[in-house]
Amino acid sequence: MDKAHRETDRVLAITIKKLLVGKFDEMNLLFIGMALSSPISRTVLARRLKKEIAKVADDFTVFILAMLVIHLSEITSMAEYCYSLNTNYMNRELGVKSKGKFKPRTLGKGLKKRIKEQTRKELTKMVRDGKSNDDIQKRLDAITKRYRSLSVTIAKSEATRAENQARLDVMLEAEKQGKKLLKMWNAILDLRTRDSHRLINKQKRPLEEKFSNGCRFPGDPDAPLQEVVNCRCWLTAVKGV
Description:
By secondary structure, the protein is mainly alpha-helical. Helix content is 59%, strand content 6%. It is elongated, with a radius of gyration of 23 Å.
């Protein structure tokens, strides 16, 4: 494991810590919590509270999206640093001067609508089921935690993508300059590593070819998700024939 890979892991760990703070303000649930003490039918109550539920859902959606935007900014900064770090490392290793460019990830289309609809449905069901304000708060906290976990997963995947995209970009530039190279897949041989990655540890391929697991490099955004999520592998360059 080389210095640039260890530094990539260190920066990723710092970023993950930043992603795991904050919660949705429980005061946004005050009106619903007070109304839950009403003796009327829960179904009728859910209808009467439709606007209030929608308002909480809107506020919660704004909170989640704001959180994700901040997370994505942190992740992008980390990934750009890792790309630059590994570009410089490979330039020194191969004796070239490559200047690639990292393409950051963006939030998926329709995310706002999905969050709002999911939250509104869950709030309505909880009111109909007679859940308390504390129960609702716990559920929204659980949803928040789920999105935080998603951000952590994205951060891990983006760190791996940035590191190995940079390494392959420099290798390709070196090949243009006449150097004969192969790329080699390196896996951490522990129980967390998926079988398809453990089995190709030290596998070598021409730079333009895919490895036998279908990836061009660890973290390849064009590969199936099951080959990319939480991957900790890395590329190194070896002399070709």
